[in-house]
Amino acid sequence: MERNTRRNFIRKLGATVGAAGVVGGTSILSSCNSVETSSGDKIKLLTSSGELVEVDKSQLTPAEMPNLSENQTRGREGLPGRSWVMVIDLSKCRNARECMKACQNHHQLRPEQHHINVLQMQDAEHTAPYYMPKPCQHCDNPPCTKVCPVNATFKRNDGIVLIDNERCIGCRFCIAACPYSARVFNWFEPRDAEKYKGVTYNIEANVPQKKGTISKCLFSADRLRDGKLPSCVSACPNGVYWFGDRNEDAVTNGTTKETVSFSKLIKDNAAYTLMEELGTKPRVYYLPPKDRAFPFEGELIEHHS
Ligand code: SF4
Ligand code: SF4
């Protein structure tokens, strides 16, 4: 029996729409003279050929949705009562890249793939350069989840934005929508594909990775469930990362293990969020690179616009 996946649902819909289009020309509804009760309630749908069509709700028969596994259901809800936040202290990052390595190992990423990247930054011509780690910002108003046609990417109650690669059809709308370039596409077979063949998919770690789908930072949702800090936070040797729960107003430093008030930390240090003007409401806060703990090393790469 054919698996009733979301992908098949879209494919079947595409076939139906295509047939109607041949008969009726411009509009599907105008081609259907059997429409006796039009609800007037229109819905937009994406066909398998990437066409956006509008149909009356009365013309649709709800498809049977695949049952979500326990892991998928649990992963969609998140940890009750939690509201996760990250604070990144730019005065402490020295480009050690241990966060990147730990993340790549945790999420079985290929060497060229990053959920978190350490960027070289310089705000103006005569100001000092600094390093800026940049993961997914876990926006409270995420543009990425709104464009996904199959509800593969979503925001859960505890603030984490995840991806369900059992549902992702690889359309990459979410990549186009993310202003932080936080998402990566699995163009090739994932690292160690043979080794992880047959391993049950874990939605909170997004492993095993799957060719033709999306991956990105997940705040190590699986580790949080186990009471651990995210991989990048634990791996940093320089005290750059604070992570914790906004509801508890507490964040813990991954290196020193010190726990402090989140609101005080961001207020006392004039923290900011990236591209605030877009209204995406990121959950990643940056402490400005003042009183730097080290000299900037390496050569600043020049970018030309
Ligand atoms: S940073 Fe990009 S991928 Fe992450 S939640 Fe925001 S829009 Fe989505
Ligand atoms: S590529 Fe992005 S938008 Fe498209 S189905 Fe996958 S998660 Fe959704």
UniProtKB/TrEMBL annotation:
It holds the Pfam family Fer4_11. The keyword Cell membrane does not apply. One of its GO terms (molecular function) is metal ion binding. Residues 127-158, 159-188 form the 4Fe-4S ferredoxin-type domain. Keywords: 4Fe-4S, Iron, Iron-sulfur, Metal-binding. It comes from the Bacteria. InterPro entries: 4Fe4S_Fe-S-bd, 4Fe4S_Fe_S_CS, ET_IronSulfur_Cluster-Binding, TAT_signal_bac_arc. This is 4Fe-4S dicluster domain-containing protein. The lineage of its organism: Bacteria, Pseudomonadati, Bacteroidota, Bacteroidia, Marinilabiliales.
